[in-house]
Design a protein that fits this description.
single chain, 140 residues, three-stranded mixed sheet, two-stranded antiparallel ribbon, alpha+beta, 19% helix
């Protein structure tokens, strides 16, 4: 999404394949991408679910975790509205912690990692400003 521009429906439209390339110059280069996520946490902490956790979302792309490829097949994608170059909001961390707690009750979580861990060199998020220590139960 356009760097450092938050709010609006751009992310929602991207994840639902409805992004209009004429609405912003940045969209012209990404509107044909077929991506999705299970969850999105907005800057204000609001949680939006796009795909059931029982189904595959298209968030990881070409990826590998501990020798296992195609992370979309066995992971839950959680996107945080933000960028690699600034801190995330307290409300986002609170929602993330609650979401991880809820998912942990339903699934055996083996690891919590970033896109940069499963697709290094191709993906850089959540970036150096993400505070991994703020998550209570983490296996990073």
């Amino acid at each position: 999404m356009p760097p450092n521009q938050y709010g609006g429906n751009g992310i929602i439209e991207l994840f639902t394949n409805q992004l209009n390339p004429d609405e912003h110059p940045y969209y012209a280069g990404i509107h044909t991408r077929k991506v999705s996520s299970h969850f999105l946490i907005r800057r204000d902490g609001r949680l939006i679910q796009f795909v059931s956790s029982l189904n595959r979302a298209w968030h990881a792309g070409i990826s590998n975790w501990q020798g296992r490829e195609r992370c979309n097949d066995f992971s839950v994608g959680i996107e945080l509205e933000g960028s690699d170059f600034e801190i995330f909001e307290n409300a986002q961390y609170q929602t993330l912690e609650n979401l991880i707690a809820a998912l942990s009750k339903a699934y055996e979580i083996q690891a919590i990692v970033g896109h940069s861990d499963i697709a290094p060199g191709r993906k850089t998020d959540p970036g150096p400003y993400f505070d991994w220590a703020r998550l209570d139960k983490i296996n990073h």
